Amino acid sequence: MKFLLALLLVIPLILSTSCGEEKKKDPAPKKEKLVDIKDGVYTEYYPGRKAVKFQGKITKSNQRDGRWFFYSENGTEMSTTEYTKGIRNGLIMVRYPSGNVRYTGFYTNGMESGKWRFYLEDGTLDFEKDYDEAKSTK
Question: Where are the beta strands (DSSP E) in 64-133?
Answer without folding.
Answer: 64-71, 77-84, 87-95, 101-108, 111-119, 125-130
